């Protein structure tokens, strides 16, 4: 009897070990769709395509990664598309902070990040205030002073009203008393084209999106939204260094998955992006685009989302915006 119990126990342990091994060995068997909320040329589109290329180059993913653009509703359309694929281990999505902000103020956003599965935080992304190279504004103070002299006449291009672009604008307006208009565009390419075409006077843009135009001498950087000066802009002040003591909500770039994906699939993707950040390709990408590597697994990403949401609620309330959640 004792032998039978022992044999049974050993068998159960072996079975458990086999099950764990099977989970650890799960891999995608068909194309992985990565859903983004921007059109071609937007920040998330650029990141997703770069990641797909890096994963292929480093041979970390056994299948192809395909970018699926789902613009509209400031992330609402993309979030709904991911939620509809409940349990699908071959779908992920790349998110930014607007996915946190938009549902707070828009009842049309039926899906929130709380309905999806957090996978990994990849980056914290700084930004810069940029004008055309021939702009009369040499510093952010120049722009602010002009906005004070001509309330509502100057224009800033940006994303949604809940994007970092507009949140920082509202903070600066409260801090300085200046007023200028915010012109919303769906895609990053459109926002940049509006500035280059002279249809707006200024924009807040990520270095990744603006780098080529800055290097070509078509844009001038007035200030940085960063805690410390970015290596690529050593002579450009941060907001605080420029005399504007405001704390900007960080822009995150992260990965989520549909609800109810298997635990082994979640573990696979967490490990995949952890491995990616250790590659030379990733490190070069981060350095070239003035980004901050900020990898964290799904549990920590979930906590970060809650903290950012709390901060955004405060910012929106201070700005007099109506919250729907």
* Overall residue-averaged pLDDT value: 90
- Number of folding domains? 2
Low-pLDDT sequence parts: 1-10, 12-23
- How do the SSEs run, as a string of H and E? HEHEHEHEEHEHEHEHEEHHEH
Architecture overview:
With 325 residues, the protein is an alpha/beta fold. It folds into two domains: 32-125 and 250-318, D-Maltodextrin-Binding Protein, domain 2, CATH 3.40.190; 127-225, D-Maltodextrin-Binding Protein, domain 2, CATH 3.40.190.10. The protein has helices at 2-24, 43-57, 76-83, 98-105, 140-149, 164-176, 188-196, 207-215, 263-276, 280-288, 298-318; strands at residues 32-36, 65-69, 91-95, 117-125, 127-132, 155-158, 181-184, 202-205, 219-225, 251-257, 292-297. The strands form two sheets. A six-stranded mixed β-sheet has the order 2-1-3-10-4-11, sandwiched between helices. A five-stranded mixed β-sheet has the order 7-6-8-5-9. The protein is globular.
Topology:
Elements: H1 2-24, E1 32-36, H2 43-57, E2 65-69, H3 76-83, E3 91-95, H4 98-105, E4 117-125, E5 127-132, H5 140-149, E6 155-158, H6 164-176, E7 181-184, H7 188-196, E8 202-205, H8 207-215, E9 219-225, E10 251-257, H9 263-276, H10 280-288, E11 292-297, H11 298-318
Parallel strand pairs: 1-2, 1-3, 6-7, 6-8
Antiparallel strand pairs: 3-10, 4-10, 4-11, 5-8, 5-9
